[in-house]
Amino acid sequence: MKKKKRKASPVLRSKKGMEMVQVAILVAIAVALGLIFKTQITDFVNDTFGSLSSAKF
User: Fold this and answer.
1) pLDDT tens for each residue of 11-25
2) C-alpha of 56 from chain center
3) Are 41 and 34 within 8 A, CB to CB?
4) What per-residue confidence (pLDDT) applies to 56?
5) Which domain holds residue 33?
6) Is 40 part of a structural domain of the chain?
7) pTM, whole model, 2 decimals?
8) Would 37 be classed as within a structural domain?
């Protein structure tokens, strides 16, 4: 006897929508981390560029 394969619904087969959701979640996480650590990131960047500009190559 042959078993019938059940076809997944188009919603379950669509990976493009899942990729968009994953990208949106990653962007939201990056923005949230940026807002939480804004002062630390700003201090780090200012210190780094200050060190680079005062260094004599």
Assistant:
1) 555 677 789 999 999
2) 36
3) yes
4) 77
5) 28-52
6) yes
7) 0.54
8) yes
Cα torsion angle, 18, 19, 25, 28, sign: negative
Three-state SS annotation for the chain: CCCCCCCCCHHHHCCHHHHHHHHHHHHHHHHHHHHHCHHHHHHHHHHHHHHHHHCCC
Q: Is residue 21 part of a domain?
A: no
Residues in the chain: 57
CB under 8 A, 24+ apart: contacts of 16-23: none
What is the identity of the amino acid at 57? Answer: F
* Domains: count for the chain: 1
Distance of CA 15 to the CA centre of its chain: 18
Residue 39 has pLDDT above 80, yes or no: yes
Asked whether residue 57 is domain-assigned, the answer is no
